[in-house]
Amino acid sequence: MSLDEYKRRRRFEGTPEPPPKFEKQSQHRFVVQRHDATRLHYDFRLEMEGVLKSWAVPKGPSLDPADKRLAMQVEDHPVSYFDFEGTIPEGNYGAGTVMVWDVGKWEPLSPIPIKGEYLPGTEKEAIAMLAKGDLKFRLKGKRLNGDFALVRIKGRRPGSKGTEWLLIKKKDHHVVAGFDIEAYETSVVTDRTMAQIAGDEGSAQWKSSRPATRGRLKAAWLADAVARADRKKSLTTEDTEKGKIRQEKPQLPAADGHLPSATKKKSSVPTVSSVVKNLAGGTPRPMPTTIHPMLATAAAKPFDDPNWLFEIKWDGYRAVAFLDEGNLRLVSRSQNDLTSQFPELGDLPQFVKAKRAILDGEIVALDDQGRPSFSLMQQRTGFQPGKRRLPGREGVPVIYYAFDLLYLDGVDLRRVSLEQRKQQLQSVIENSVVVHFSDHYPEKGIALFEAARQRGLEGIVAKKRSSTYDEKRSSEWLKIKITASQECVIGGYTDPEGSREHFGALVLGLYEKQNRLIHVGQVGTGFDQRTLKDVSNSLRPLETKENPFYGEVAALREVHFVRPELVAEIKFSEWTHETAEGGMKLRAPVFMGLRADKSPEECRLEEAVPSSE
Predict the structure, then answer these.
(1) Beta-bridge partners for 364
(2) Residue 107's beta-bridge partner residues?
(3) In what order do the strands lie in the sheet with 559-571?
(4) Cβ neighbours of residue 11 under 8 Å, at least 6 residues apart?
(5) Do 371 and 401 meet the contact criterion of CB atoms below 8 Å apart?
(6) Concatenated DSSP letters for 500-560?
(7) Whether 356 contacts 287, CB under 8 Å
(8) φ and ψ of 562, to 5 deg
């Protein structure tokens, strides 16, 4: 067995985790650790062959045979990890709090039953069963007891690498029907809760005027960062008395550290409460079939204002989710159907307490630290210019962050205030492996902006508490970016020079009020060899002799024009004016990727320059 992968992922000068060490003898112990990392989950580990064989179990083990728990096999851990309990600091792999949820002994069961009963086996048999993908064993722990099986399954997720297993409780006298793992919330070693282990119970927190869940950004780091940033401006007594982010015991079962938090099976769907029916602005009507998302106007800098709510700006694909009697339809802002591209989100309706609902949100791919990554999203989906779709990278999971509720069981909520819509949204969503409520922070935009900056996020969104949902761009929603970025239309490319292949730079434009494509610069950085080839393959079928830009294009090299059908995400330092040809230009542009979720017509010059609001 090897601990190379365990060692590769960690910097031991920055984490209290034990260093890799192989043990010659096995004591056949097992441990279950509750791990509140990027996503809350349980780590199930069996001491075997001198290491701890390990699986991340999103919903945690169960004593109910009806619960077939997904278990993702992860890297082997050293045996010294057996009793590790504490906090892995931010910036390290698996950052978050770890609690020892159960410990005990395990023994392999012989793969061949005698008179219907599995008898104790040997480690050699266990090694063979593990390699075959069907390991039967018996647990003798403080909380888990009886016979279990780990069965490898054919992964349904894109890019499965044979790491998906099912953890199944066998029928015996240790069965507990309806087993609730959340009933056991303390460590079997120290009798502490997760909050006590994290050392944050009673400590200074970001103050909110109302309770809010710690979302799957987990926002221990987010809440703490906001609090630190806000303390620099000194909190008022009134702020201090408003209460803090809720740290009470979650009402749902926990989830996976490499997947988002999972929940119990959905109970019977409740009817719409009289509160929803009587909301000011709520209108009884059939569910709409089309929604054009409300869009934010760019703003130059963050601000504090008691009339506004502030959210993280998720860097993914905007999508409206239509939920109808357990069925899901995901629609992009350009009205393209995204449902088939994200099959793992198909269970989303199970975690919304409604028969019919319309949610607005963002499909996001997260990195190892829980940060939204558009780069990962692109790798997941591949380039998708026009109707052509190139293969994406397999094995990149996504989650849907819901930040608005537009319709709920017969009531249209678009004329209801944002604050009330968000309150209703939070009440109907069960945070899970597929969907999460996108939290908000009242009043304190500057502190949230600084916290987002420290974490390398794209920016924040400011929304008026009283705003209704207008299906257009509005100044009642503002986007405040940390690094300036702009979606631009590709109208041409230049020839490569030197050893470079495929093309030199992309020629970019934005549409102005008269719907003319205005040249705003070229981008030649941000590409690797694969990206150059992929983008080039997308450009060739679009070549045309007709100049799509309004007026001549000044470029150092000859421009090959293409039909303006592709949209590129561009990061840049600022807007500038060039006296040679006039007009606004991107300074220091860097190519970030193609945007299949944005149409060229959405790339507007009048929206490119942030307002001073």
Answers:
(1) 399
(2) 138
(3) 517-523, 506-511, 485-494, 559-571, 590-594
(4) 92
(5) no
(6) --S-S-EEEEEE-TTSPEEEEEEE--S--HHHHHHHHHHHGGGB-SS--BSS----SSPEE
(7) yes
(8) -130, 155
Alpha-carbon span 269 to 280, nearest angstrom? 24
Q: Which of 59, 313, 422, 464 is catalytic?
A: 313
- pLDDT tens digits, residue range 139-191? 999 999 999 999 998 765 555 567 899 999 999 999 999 899 988 988 998 88
Contact 155, 161 (CB under 8 A): yes
Query: Three-state SS for 477?
Result: strand
Catalytic annotation present for 169: no
| pLDDT tens per residue across span 514-566 | 999 999 999 998 888 888 999 999 999 999 999 999 988 876 678 999 999 99
Sign for the pseudo-dihedral over CA of 144, 147, 152, 157: negative
Structural domains present in the chain = 4-183 (no CATH), 220-480 (3.30.470.30), 485-607 (2.40.50.140)
Is the sign of the CA dihedral 295, 298, 302, 305 positive or negative? Answer: negative
Task: Kindly report the number of other CB atoms within 10 A of residue 12's CB atom.
Answer: 12
- The predicted model gives 413-440 an average pLDDT of 92
DSSP 572: -
Pair of tokens at residue 493: 């490319």
**pLDDT tens digits, 272-309:** 555 677 788 999 999 999 999 999 998 888 999 999 99
The packing angle between helices 445-454 and 220-231, to 10°, is 120
pLDDT of 390 higher than 80 = no
Residue 363 has pLDDT above 70, yes or no: yes
- Report the C-alpha gap between 107 and 98 in whole angstroms: 25
How do beta strands 317-324 and 327-332 pair?
Answer: antiparallel
Q: How many residues does the chain have?
A: 613
What is d(CA 297, CA 478) in angstroms, rounded to the nearest whole number? 5
pLDDT at 260: 33
HSE, side-chain direction, 13 A CA sphere, residue 519: 22
DSSP-based three-state secondary structure for 314: coil
Both tokens of 507, joined, read 């020629």
Helix (H, G, I), strand (E, B) or coil at 452: helix
Report the predicted TM-score, pTM, of the whole model to 2 decimal places: 0.47
Task: Give the C-alpha separation, 311 to 461, whole Å.
Answer: 5
